[in-house]
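Priority: medium. Attachment 1 of 2:
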C-alpha cells in the first residue's frame, strides 16, 4: 500500500503538534507537495548542499530537518542566496522539506528529554511549562449515554492531568428544552417543553486537540444539538514548555560531572562559569539550542547547573554566584535530535535514514 508524504507529516504532527512552536518559528512543511507518494526520507539538523545532495543520491523525496530552511518571508527566489539555491534545487528534484523545530523543543518527550537521557538525569520535568494551552469542556449528556460520550472524549485526548488520565467531574441535573418545527429530537416532542435527566461532564484537553475533541463529542452525543461550553484556562500544561530539569542519581563533584558531560556529549571542550571544582552537582537543567532565557527559571527551580548554548559574557558575570552555566555549543546540544525523530518514524515507516554527510558548521583552531 502506497504512503503519501502527508501521512508521514500527520504522524509527526500527532507526536509534536505545530501549535507547540514559538511565535517566531517556521516549523511545518516549507516546500514541496505533501500529496506526493513517499519514497524515502532523510533526517538532519540543518539543510545544506551536502544534505540535499545526499537526498538526491539516495532517492529521498522528503527531508525532515530540525532547523527550518526558511525563518523569514522570501519575496524573491532568484538563486542569489544559499537558501534560495537550496529551495530551487529541492523543487527541481521534487523533494519535500519539512521542519520540526521549537514544537519538538517544547515537548516532554522532545529534544531536552533526549539530552537528559544522555546525561543520566532522572525525574525530568519541564523547566518553564507552557501557559494558556489548556481548555475546559463542559457538556450536558442524557444520563444513559454519559459513559459512551465520556469514553469518546477520553479517546480524543481529554482528561489528562499530570500522570493521570480519564479525569472528569460529573454532576447530575435536569435539562430542559423545546424542539421547534423542523427539528428531529432524540427525546421529547415538537413544540412541547421537555425535561431530561442529564449528566454534566467536565474535563480538560490541550488546545491543539480541540477540533478532534469536538468531532468526537458530536459523533458520540445522541442529541441533534448538543449543549457544551469551552473555557480557556490559565493553568500550566506540564507536558509542554521550554527546557527541562531533573536530578542525578546522587551528588557528583563538578569535575567528575564535567568529565561525564564531555564524554557523553562527545565534546572536545566547552565553556563554563568559573566555579569551585570541589562543589557537587545534584540538580541539572538543560535546554537544547539557545537557552540563556531560562537562566532565571533554572535558578528559581534550584538547578546547580544549566547546560545549553550561546550564553553571553554578562551571563557568566551576573549569575556566577547563583548557578553554573555550561555552554556546549548549539549544534552539540541538538545532535541527538535527528536520532529522536528517527526513533519515532522508524516505528511506522521503515524507509528513513539519518543524514551521514551532515557535519558541525563550527570548527575550532
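Attachment 2 of 2:
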Amino acid at each position: 500500500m502506497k504512503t503519501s508524504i502527508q501521512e508521514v507529516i500527520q504522524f509527526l504532527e500527532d507526536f509534536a503538534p505545530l501549535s507547540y512552536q514559538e511565535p517566531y518559528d517556521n516549523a511545518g512543511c516549507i516546500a514541496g507537495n505533501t500529496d506526493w507518494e513517499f519514497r524515502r526520507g532523510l533526517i538532519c539538523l540543518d539543510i545544506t548542499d551536502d544534505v540535499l545532495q545526499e537526498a538526491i543520491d539516495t532517492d529521498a523525496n522528503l527531508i525532515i530537518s530540525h532547523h527550518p530552511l526558511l525563518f523569514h518571508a522570501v519575496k524573491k527566489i532568484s538563486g542569489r542566496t544559499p537558501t534560495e539555491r537550496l529551495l530551487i534545487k529541492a523543487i527541481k528534484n521534487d523533494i519535500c522539506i519539512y521542519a520540526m523545530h521549537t514544537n519538538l523543543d517544547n515537548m516532554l518527550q522532545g529534544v531536552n528529554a533526549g539530552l537528559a537521557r544522555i546525561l543520566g538525569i532522572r525525574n525530568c520535568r519541564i523547566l518553564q511549562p507552557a501557559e494558556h494551552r489548556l481548555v475546559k469542556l463542559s457538556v450536558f449528556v442524557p444520563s444513559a449515554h454519559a459513559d459512551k460520550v465520556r469514553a469518546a472524549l477520553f479517546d480524543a485526548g481529554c482528561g489528562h492531568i499530570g500522570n493521570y488520565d480519564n479525569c472528569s467531574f460529573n454532576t447530575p441535573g435536569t435539562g430542559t428544552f423545546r424542539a421547534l418545527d423542523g427539528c428531529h429530537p432524540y427525546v421529547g416532542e415538537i413544540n412541547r417543553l421537555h425535561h431530561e435527566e442529564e449528566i454534566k461532564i467536565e474535563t480538560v484537553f490541550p488546545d491543539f486537540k480541540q477540533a478532534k475533541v469536538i468531532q468526537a463529542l458530536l459523533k458520540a452525543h445522541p442529541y441533534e444539538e448538543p449543549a457544551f461550553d469551552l473555557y480557556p484556562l490559565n493553568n500550566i500544561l506540564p507536558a509542554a514548555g521550554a527546557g527541562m530539569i531533573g536530578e542525578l542519581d546522587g551528588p557528583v563533584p563538578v569535575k567528575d560531572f564535567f568529565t561525564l558531560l564531555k564524554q557523553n556529549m562527545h565534546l572536545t571542550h566547552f565553556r563554563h562559569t568559573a566555579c569551585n571544582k570541589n562543589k557537587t552537582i545534584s540538580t541539572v537543567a538543560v535546554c537544547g539550542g539557545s537557552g540563556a532565557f531560562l537562566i532565571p527559571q533554572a535558578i528559581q527551580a534550584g538547578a546547580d547547573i544549566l547546560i545549553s548554548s550561546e550564553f553571553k559574557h554578562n551571563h557568566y558575570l551576573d549569575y556566577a554566584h547563583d548557578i553554573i552555566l555550561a555552554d556546549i555549543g548549539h549544534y552539540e546540544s541538538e545532535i541527538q535530535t535527528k536520532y529522536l525523530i528517527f526513533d519515532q518514524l522508524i516505528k511506522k515507516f521503515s524507509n528513513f535514514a539519518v543524514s551521514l554527510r551532515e557535519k558541525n558548521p563550527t570548527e575550532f583552531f
